[in-house]
Hints:
Two copies of one chain form a homodimer.
Chain A: E1 4-11, H1 16-30, E2 34-41, E3 49-57, E4 71-74, H2 77-83, E5 91-96, E6 108-113, H3 115-122, H4 129-141, H5 146-156, H6 159-177
Parallel strand pairs in A: 1-4, 4-5, 5-6
Antiparallel strand pairs in A: 1-3, 2-3
Helix pairs in contact in A: 1-4, 1-5, 4-6, 5-6
Amino acid sequence: MERCRMVFSGSGGQGVITATIILAEAAVLYENLNAVQSQSYGAEARGGATRSDVIISDSMIDFPKVIQPNVLVCLTQDAYNKFYQIIRPGGLLVTDTRYVNTQKKVDAQQRELPMFQSVMDKIGKPIVFNICMLGAVIEMVDLIAPEAIMKVLQNRIPPDFLDINRQALDLGRELGMEFKK
Amino acid sequence: MERCRMVFSGSGGQGVITATIILAEAAVLYENLNAVQSQSYGAEARGGATRSDVIISDSMIDFPKVIQPNVLVCLTQDAYNKFYQIIRPGGLLVTDTRYVNTQKKVDAQQRELPMFQSVMDKIGKPIVFNICMLGAVIEMVDLIAPEAIMKVLQNRIPPDFLDINRQALDLGRELGMEFKK
Lengths: 181, 181
């Protein structure tokens, strides 16, 4: 397989770090792949945009930081403005329609998805926004099965919350389905 | 300052990843330092021991993976058996007395602390074991103020849970105080 390098970005509290950790765990525990997941914080992190990196591969991964992601997700305008240039040519750039106005020219497939709005309309709980995003990503990229994500969630969250997480994951998959590669 | 490289290890569910993320955020947001935090998962991760790395520095950090930590925390026997050799000579090796029987010879300051037992005796909630560990580490290493950790926790957890987290942090600090450098 080709190594998949992803960067999820947004603001603190949107759960982008949690989403990458869930994805990495699903890859390793249930898809028999290797994964490295990292956060790099510096002076710029104090400004606002959070970034979380994950690399997934069937071979060993030496250097954990993503230089040019195949998949870049931006959940805020700040994150988009700061990171849009790093997308790998021909890569997949996913933004949320509610939060991001995409004015930049990039050599990538741009997918503007109403993830936040759909979560609010259908589920009403902003806390699962990140899981909806994860659903959209795994549907478009087809690397990790939704069942693998659900197994990780079952180990991490109280049973009462599993149902809205499943709903959010499915909602994201529906949004991504149109753009399945 | 000297760059501080730490590895927290244990089993899934003990919260070692969360603890490193909290520490990294505290360093960056409230201590004006830089931090890189990462998890590297491979075939061995499927065996059991989880490892989470964090590097804290006042200068730029290029390579995010810790090779030889100054501080190594092991919260299970598996984690100890797997990682004890990586401690930097003269470093600090922290283990939990309930979970780890330290039989290996290492060139390090070994601190066996009754963290889990103290949390169960004084607070009764195993979920804050990782915060107690963090309290012990910041007391012994003196790099991040407890108030910085509390500020991160205030942003991350519901107000109802803040009090037991504060208790766990203070409990850890008491256990670490004896070994303050």
